[in-house]
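Help! Submission page says 'invalid entity' but I think these are all valid:
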Amino acid sequence: MILNAYSVLAAFAAALRLLLGLLVLSLGLRRRRADEGEFYLLFTLSVTLVGLAVVSWPLLYLVLQSYVPEWPRVMCIQGVTRIGAGSLGAPARLPLLLDLLEITKPLLLFVAGGWFVLHLANRADRTASLSGRVLAVLLGAAALAAADGGLELAYLLIPKGEKFLSVGCCTFSTLTGGDPASATGALGLPPQAPPWLTPAYFVATFAAVAALFLRRRAAALAATLVAVPVTLLFLRDVASPAFLRLPFHHCTYCMFKDAPESIVAVSLFATGALATGWAWFTRENAPLLHAARFGYLASMLMMAVRLLIPR
Amino acid sequence: MRPRTRIALALLGLLPLAADRLRSPEGRCSYDGARTSPAFRVRIDDRRFCGVRCAQAWLRASGVTPRSVRVIADGREIDARAAHFVHTFSTWGDGSPDEIRAFATLEEAQRRVQAYGGTILTGAERPFGEEHAAD
């Protein structure tokens, strides 16, 4: 384990998520027999779990960023994500663990947020008719939190003694597959953004905004499901070269590090996507739809302004 | 749309513009944005690169035919065509961006290879084209 303030904090938060997730699972599964005291305990633990789920996402990237100086020729998180590749034993699992964490983090945030939205709707309902759904979603969030905590703990604890990165520059690794064989040859051209990517991003996001304005939840969700993968590609191949003013540098991590305003744009997009999804958990969803509209619009505006600034 | 929302949208729209004005690319590699070290810097026309590999990659990607390529060799900037390049095996701890080193003289390059291993790049292996006498 690489010991620094971020990794210790992340390990503590991950252990807490694992424990709280298991505790909420066990309490939730015997909820029917629970007394009033246990209900409040369950609620308090669940709120703590949601808080931890929110904090753990940026914390993971702070940990990865703090690892960058550990390897002399790693220049960003992209390099850290490749540590362990090609090695034997447990370190070989490090890239897979990180890939899984990059899926469980947003998923956990989505499910935990969904539970919170459902809980608020249930509390406003005199008959508490949503209690069954609240509990079911909570159990899902708890299971996911425990899995996420376990995965992160494993990632943090596995030794990262590998000193032989094929190449340090994140761009070269992406382009050449990290082939160190030749110093002068095999430098592939950067992956140019396909011409459809920028229109696809704006069309998909605009479709989501239009559907939200028209209060067509199904259409908004469908547009979001298209917009999310398109946006991930757009961020790497269009937004990062534009934000960094480096036409051949396609690295979202470098964009976040060197152009922090991009974090605002991406957070707004995430707000749009998550709020669109959360709106499905309840019928009283006007504030969520408003937040989703605002998130999408603001994110799209920031991207458009960035692309229009002359180089 | 409420006025408050419009103002928030306008402010967020201005954010990339403001951030772009505040940021300076000085001292950054024109290919990957890494900080350039004076010991390994490569200059193609008015662009700076952290090392030989970044400069090569930029040339290939941009398709530009450079007017001049200058590298740091033995502490001074010289024309790349006059430099001798070594593909070294020893890069740890020297803050180098890649494994190519430039030397002003063949003797210096040979000394490096004898001391630390590696190969002197010749012919088509040479970065930035064939060897010429310095201008």
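Support: the input was valid. A stray whitespace character was the problem, and the output above is from the cleaned input. Residues 165-169, 171-190 of chain A have pLDDT under 50 and may be disordered.
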